[in-house]
Fold this protein.
Amino acid sequence: MKKKIGRRRRNITGKWVKKAHDTLKSARNRTVVVMLIPARTDTKWFHEYIYDKPNVEIRFLKGRLKFVGAEHSAPFPSMVVIFR
């Protein structure tokens, strides 16, 4: 059961990335979308919508995020993706 939950979470991230990509593709104004997401460079959505695309900027964050008040850091690296 745990594997299905993990896969679902990654699929949700992929769906949000696709939505950002599609929103910009159909936008007629100067829309900018900024996303803070897990740095999953081995996924299909990363290669389809982010990697090596002319309208996308990627900034990998050093270390693991730890939010104020959180006991532990995130269990994954993060990146900021900017769709222009």
The first strand starts at residue 33 and ends at 38. The chain has two helices and three strands. Residues 2-26 form the longest helix (25 residues). The mean pLDDT is 86.
